[in-house]
Amino acid sequence: LTSLTYSKALGDVLDNLSAGATGGFAIFPLTNLNNRLDYGPEAFDQKLRLVNSFSYQLPIGRGQRFANGGFMGQVLEKWSVNGLVQMNTGPAMTITGTNNANPAPNGGGNTRGNCLAPTPTQGPITAWFNTSVYSGTTAYTYGNCGVGTLHGPGINNWDFSAFKKFSFTESRYLEL
Known about the structure:
Distance between the termini: 24 Å
Low-confidence stretches: 19-26
Number of helices: 1
Number of strands: 13
Order of helices and strands: EEEEHEEEEEEEEE
Largest sheet: 5 strands, antiparallel
Strand content: 25-35%
């Protein structure tokens, strides 16, 4: 069973309940004067997602293609393997900085950082992107980095299992 999803989630709503945030953390728009500055990939945006699950009974043992009889046939018969593979790209992330523009009530919230160069995402998780291409903002400025301009690391997860069935009667068996 395989499913592949290719998608893009765009919006100008700042969602404080997705991507690990909690409802108690307040996220404010960059400015109430221009909502288009908050338009971009949402925090839950994942471009690609592949999920594959499988179950396969090995063709070994009595009445099967391989090792149809003998001691090895009895030892190797009635085995099945199962697996689940999940791969997806990482979520969209927005580079934020200290609130120098004061866009939120009581000085709360964050503003965006300044992007000095394009940011390639590669390498190990401890150095996923180059921090030297970003800088803080000056007083009363918002920063020029857009929403969701960086995608975090994705997931590549493999689960595997093997089962052996021991029959006692036609309708009773033990599975290990």
